[in-house]
Amino acid sequence: MLAPFASKATALLCFVALLAVPVVSHSGNHPLASKSQKAAAASQAGKPDDAALRARAAKLHRDAIVIDTHNDITSPMVDENFDLGMNGINADGTMKTHTDIRRMKEGGLDAEFFAIYVGKEFVGKKAAEGGGPARRALDMIADVREQVRRHPETFEMASTAADIRRIARQGKIAALMGIEGGHAIEDSLRTLRSFYTLGVRYMTLTHTNTNDWADSSGDINDATVHHHNGLTAFGREVVREMNRIGMMVDISHVADKTFYDAIETSRAPIIASHSSARALANHPRNMDDDMLRAIGKNNGVVMVNFYDGFLDPRKIEFNKTANAKAEEFRKQYLDDPKRAEEEFRKWSAANAPARTPLSVLIDHVDHIAKVAGIDHVGIGSDFDGIPLTGAPAGMEDISKLPNLTIELMKRGYSDADIKKVLGENFLRVMASVERVAAEMQAKEPTAATPKFQP
Question: Considering the domain boundaries, does residue 2 fall inside one?
């Protein structure tokens, strides 16, 4: 989640990202990558796709269990009263959201993790201001459950990997939740357990902000922020308690040292719910090859983020320039913010590269499969937590998920391996986390509750 509802400074960054959509094509690490890129180029030039391959891909996509581990449609649900039964496409054809029921079905989705995103701006808020982090999380959880209640023909709440399989067989979409931002527990293991009871099945240890017990990649280079060199002693207790209750440990957004501390502490496999490969796109939100290998050794899974600002190196570089340029215009037209915005739009229109091709997203899947192993890669779109134009061409919204299957097939992946990427890898990890929890609870029936120590 890029925190579109956060502070003015964050909103400016999101505005910049919205206008910046670059194009680049990597020479992928899979042996068939160049062949795929040629096929994509031919398709864009107007050459028809192979009908037999598309038909085979469509059947495979239907047969697979397709799981997206990170979708921020919960923010429009809470902040704009968006109902998933509504049309997320405006009357003029422009996009309002990446996600709605119609397009989830078109995408062949079987399970969705709704992000319980808690922005850093909720830390310290009073009740009259909307409440603090735990209150924000509770509001979002309530809205997810309300959507399931309103649309029982489409959704059913799921708590386990077995639930996902059962609900998928019934032709419904399994609804699950993951907290984004460990500050949501307000330094309380009791609150962590309560969130689990309410249906939360993973927690991202940090968002873009370092919290009281874990460092974030988002501010790790900010000297004004107090850091902990990874996880504190209490942070390790949080990870252990997540293991004990069966909540998956998510390391997207965390600082590198926090990642390694979590790997060292966790008795269960961990996940990266929406992260990509740093070797292909040098962004601190992405994972370097040593981290990918560590995930493989841990038997965890990396779910590839669809945001081109994390996938495409040209987009990353453009965003850096654009952020500085937006600030320059803001200062130049301090008394005329509309003029500043208009000047920035003109500059961006003249300088922003074209949209990122789908092949770049597949390059990240390729790279993670090569470095971590084919058993350790999946999909975590970040839809509706990224700019509406921030996903690659061919993956504009959730209805386009079948294009992943087509492109993976073009690159020579076997049917079994494609099913792993679409959902089986994640289901394996989730089931393993459940097994570890059962073993720990058999040995530790009474929960320890250490108090937070600053």
Answer: no
pLDDT by 10s per residue, the chain, length 454: 765 433 333 333 343 443 433 333 333 333 333 434 444 444 444 445 689 999 999 999 999 999 999 999 999 999 999 999 999 999 999 999 999 999 999 999 999 999 999 999 999 999 999 899 999 999 999 999 999 999 999 999 999 999 999 999 999 999 999 999 999 999 999 999 999 999 999 999 999 999 999 999 999 999 999 999 999 999 999 999 999 999 999 999 999 999 999 999 999 999 999 999 999 999 999 999 999 999 999 999 999 999 999 999 999 999 889 889 999 999 999 999 999 999 999 998 898 889 999 999 999 999 999 999 999 999 999 999 999 999 999 999 999 999 999 999 999 999 999 999 999 999 999 999 999 999 999 998 777 677 666 5
Look up 382 and say whether it is catalytic: yes
- Which amino acid, residue 8? K
Helix (H), strand (E) at residue 82: none
Query: Which CATH number characterizes residue 185's domain?
Result: 3.20.20.140
> Annotated catalytic residue: which of 68, 72, 186, 215?
72
274 catalytic, yes or no? Answer: yes
Q: What is the rounded CA–CA span in Å between residue 310 and residue 392? A: 11
pTM: 0.88
Specify if 147 maps to a domain: yes
Task: For residue 98, indicate whether it is catalytic.
Answer: no
Q: Which residues pair with 383 in a beta bridge?
A: 71
Does the annotation count 110 as an active-site position?
no
- Tell me if 195 is assigned to some domain: yes
Give me the catalytic one of 70, 183, 228, 367: 70
Please indicate whether residue 207 is annotated as part of the active site. Answer: yes
The count of domains in the chain is 1
Residue 394 structural domain: 8-443
Question: What single string gives the DSSP state of each residue in 362-431?
Answer: HHHHHHHHHHT-GGGEEE---BTSS-TT-SPBT-SSGGGTHHHHHHHHHTT--HHHHHIIIIIHHHHHHH
Q: Which of 30, 253, 367, 376 is catalytic?
A: 253
In a domain, 449, yes or no: no
